[in-house]
């Protein structure tokens, strides 16, 4: 894992669950990790906790709603300016909803589609700039799959 030390990673959904675990793991291997989430304060708390534990990596908390393209553009422009680019991108932000096709309200479906479908589309232009064939380039989208039988 030494080859990742000092490299830059971006993790979405970093405030909880899978994304938080990925952020901690990458930072503990010396990476500079930008944690994107709406609840930026939770990422900041994790950064402080990791620092107090002597973590070798750095954590930066950036507020972004992935369903809003302008948030993504702002976040990546900050990353470009402050850290110079991205080596590893892990998209863990998503929402789970039990709405059914027949009974679910359109508004609920719209939210699921905005976050789980449009979010990755907004992110893809940025993540596609990562050279996945380079030794340090990695890109992963982690998403929930749900099937409805109606
Ligand atoms: N946990 C598991 O074992 C597991 C297993 C298989 C699949 N999955 C799937 O993996 C996905 C993540 O699971 P999880 O357990 O990590 O969920 P989680 O604990 O609910 O975390 C979801 C993350 O997504 C972020 N998020 C949600 N909406 C967002 C938005 N509009 N913009 C930016 N960030 C947003 C949340 O951050 P903010 O609210 O702060 O924005 C949070 O950090 C889900 O789809 C889940 O179904 C999870």
TrEMBL record:
GO terms for molecular function: 2,3-dihydro-2,3-dihydroxybenzoate dehydrogenase activity. One of its GO terms (biological process) is siderophore biosynthetic process. Keywords: Oxidoreductase. Residues 129-150 are annotated as: Disordered. The keyword Protein biosynthesis does not apply. It comes from the Eukaryota. Belongs to the short-chain dehydrogenases/reductases (SDR) family. This is Dehydrogenase/reductase SDR family member 11. The lineage of its organism: Eukaryota, Metazoa, Ecdysozoa, Arthropoda, Hexapoda.
